[in-house]
Design brief:
Blueprint lengths: L5 E3 H16 L5 H10 L7 E3 H26 L8 H9 L8 H4 L16 H4 L10 H11 L5
Antiparallel strand pairs: 1-2
Length: about 150
């Protein structure tokens, strides 16, 4: 360290890794670390001022808050009731939702929903074919037509 208000880039990376490991409770995603390093203003001699570091932390906090706000707005459409009493009444009366899962969520919630998630109703229709009978059924049908009943 040059002084209390200046950091070197290798120290910043190590220090940032330690902080983010505590935040993530384990391994830090490389994209998150790189975004933090890219947002930090580094001087020509490779030092970082304390003010630049604090500004980076503030901008990253603002980005995280904005992301969480946007994420809440995306997911808030899935909420149909504001109280557990209304929800339980809807469950008891078997009331259907106003919107289907593809209208509420942008992505499938579980992997079993991936099939058909973005397909239209026409894509999901199965091809209809005439019922084919086996030889025994055809023989029995001919016997019935001739008046032979079992």
């Amino acid at each position: 360290l040059a002084n209390q208000n200046t950091l070197f880039l290798p120290f910043l990376i190590g220090f940032t890794m330690q902080v983010l490991e505590k935040v993530y409770h384990g391994e830090v995603p490389a994209a998150e670390l790189q975004m933090f390093i890219d947002a930090t203003a580094v001087a020509e001699d490779g030092t970082i001022t304390r003010a630049a570091f604090d500004d980076t932390v503030a901008s990253m906090r603002a980005k995280a808050t904005e992301f969480m706000t946007n994420q809440h707005q995306v997911l808030s459409g899935a909420c149909e009731t504001s109280s557990s009493e209304v929800m339980q009444t809807n469950l008891r009366r078997h009331t259907r939702s106003k919107a289907g899962p593809t209208d509420k969520y942008s992505q499938p919630l579980v992997t079993s929903q991936e099939y058909g998630w973005s397909q239209t109703g026409e894509d999901l229709k199965t091809k209809r074919a005439a019922k084919m009978s086996c030889k025994e059924t055809q023989y029995a049908a001919e016997l019935i037509k001739c008046g032979v009943y079992f």
